[in-house]
Known about the structure:
Blueprint (H helix, E strand, L loop, with lengths): L1 H17 L2 H37 L6 H15 L11 H25 L3 H4 L2 H36 L3 H8 L9 H7 L16
Amino acid sequence: xRKILTVLAALASLSLTNCGYNAxxxxxxxxxxxxxxxxxxxxxxxxxxxxxxNSVKGFAQQEKDVLLxxxxxxxxxxSIQATPEVLNDPAAFQKFQAAQGELSSALSRLLVVTxxxxxxxxxxxxxxxxxxxxxxxxxxxxxxxxYIKAVQDYNVTIRSFPSNLTAMMFGYKEKPNFTxxxxxxxxxxxxxxxxxxxxxxx
Length: 202
């Protein structure tokens, strides 16, 4: 009896492997891990915003609308729970994308404004914050690209035969991914040129 159970267990294991079940599990876990890294890097950026806003405020209090825009965008990002469940809810994922895109746009507007304040641009604290922000934006790009690739692999697997039958049987569905429009909007890290433009030659 024990031998029969062992054989049946082996056959079941072989069947799950051949039908793509194990591959789906592995790729699903990879997506979750990559998503966690995306969220972590976005959180790093969010954490920098208050100090950045306060730094700019010290030199450019009159830019209230721009500063308020960044603060409000940060608050919207903070109101979204970016749990792994978001990956199974296209509407929630889209909401997450939109909030991050709004924060990216608000930060870009803020950095454009800072060009008008040479003293701010030469401030040591501001320079340090900008260095951290740019580094974080680069990490976001790397993490997001890894997530995109993981989702692409997973979605191909659950659409391919015979793993698509397994996916239907166990209720696995395609994961949402970053849209082309959103990717274009948030893939460019905010940049500030601390080198003044050369004076025109006479």
